[in-house]
Amino acid sequence: MKKLYDADDEASRNGAIFRILTALKQICNHPVHYAKHGTPKIESSGKAERMIEILEDILDVNEKAVIFTQYKEMGDLMVEMIYTKFGIAPLFFNGELSRTKRDLMVNEFQTKHSKPFMILTIKAGGTGLNLTAANHVIHYDLWWNPAVEDQGTDRTFRIGQDKNVIVHR
């Protein structure tokens, strides 16, 4: 807030506001996301608790989910929380993966029952990504532009989708 009050020009003020909003988004995701250290306990975040509840319901009915986040760091925390809770290592599709690894990961999600969850950074999807094995889409943290979220959701609404898709925001 001090940087906001001390800003001399509009660009500095806008930058300070953006940093404050980003920090608030990270705190809402999980306190460890903002702090950048610590163990992500599910009970430390209402958002994490709700995601786990949804995933429990999805597992109970033998379905699959894709989970979108705008932050790679938050994706790493979700991988840890999901593995701790369910003993299942979710797939994590992000911009650091090679094309070959991405293709293998999509194939694994689409064909293997043992991989019910895939976490994706919202911008890593790319052209032609089809995730029709999922019938749940979870938007963990909302993007600044809702049209980008719609593009993420559309990854499950492709030719070949034969299930109803439920979107959780």
Plain-language structure description:
- It is a single chain.
- The protein is of the alpha/beta class.
- The protein contains 7 helices and 5 strands, in the order ααααβαβαββαβ.
- It has a 5-stranded parallel β-sheet, sandwiched between helices.
- α6 (99-111) links the parallel β2 (91-93) and β3 (117-121).
- The longest helix is centred in the N-terminal third of the chain and has 20 residues, at 10-29.
- The two termini are 29 Å apart.
- 28% of the residues are buried.
- The model has no long low-confidence stretch (mean pLDDT 90).
Summarize the entry for a quick read.
The protein is built from seven helices and five strands. With 169 residues, the protein is of the alpha/beta class.
Tag the structure with descriptive keywords.
single chain, 169 residues, alpha/beta, globular, five-stranded parallel sheet, 7 helices
Number of strands: 5
Derived structural class: alpha/beta
| Sequence of secondary-structure elements | HHHHEHEHEEHE
Q: Which strand order does the major sheet show?
A: 2-3-1-4-5
Q: How much of the sequence is in beta strands? A: 5-15%
> Main β-sheet, in a few words?
5 strands, parallel
Q: What oligomeric state do the depicted chains represent? A: single chain
Helix content, binned percent: 40-55%
| CA-based shape | globular
Rounded average pLDDT: 90
Number of contiguous helices: 7
Radius of gyration: 17 Å
Task: Report low-confidence residues grouped into runs of 5 or more.
Answer: none
Q: What is the terminal separation in angstroms? A: 29 Å
